[in-house]
Structure to design on (174 residues):
């Protein structure tokens, strides 16, 4: 298989993986078992990846990580919003 | 800051982000709010990234994604193991 296709599919998978988690947390109205620290580390990591992409002027790196950065922010807000439902 | 340092720090952050999630799930003995689908997508994504790294013979890509792949497997097994504690 072509290298670039593998890289693109890999990037799409890792950057969209948070969608099912966000959907689940939204439906369940709770996210108590989800780690805040994981998302803060991901926020820093995806932010740095996006910055790295900007320095390299590599659009796939910028777009996938900017998207993941927004998903990290969404998950942090969902967890914060549903904190009242945690036991 | 040097590009390579940004990339390396970004890679370390995104690949180690699952450690606090695994520690939390292990301590709580439950992971019901965590999405199985997220970890299966990550497993496929990190696996493809590692393969991409092998094709490019790029060790940082291989090591960070092989590590993340193992963490995905660990989270899937923790969620499966603690399923009996889910309501």
């Amino acid at each position: 298989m072509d290298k670039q296709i593998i890289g693109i599919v890999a990037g799409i998978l890792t950057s969209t993986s948070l969608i099912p988690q966000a959907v689940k947390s939204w439906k369940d109205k709770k996210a108590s078992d989800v780690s805040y620290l994981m998302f803060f580390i991901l926020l820093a990591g995806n932010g740095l990846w996006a910055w790295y992409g900007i320095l390299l002027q590599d659009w796939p790196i910028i777009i996938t990580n900017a998207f993941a950065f927004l998903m990290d922010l969404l998950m942090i807000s969902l967890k914060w919003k549903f904190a009242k439902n945690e036991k």
Observations:
- The interface with chain A takes residues 3, 6-7, 9-14, 16-18, 20-21, 23-25, 28, 30-35, 37-39, 41-42, 44-46, 48-49, 51-52, 55-56 of chain B (CB under 8 Å).
- Chain B has four helices and no strands.
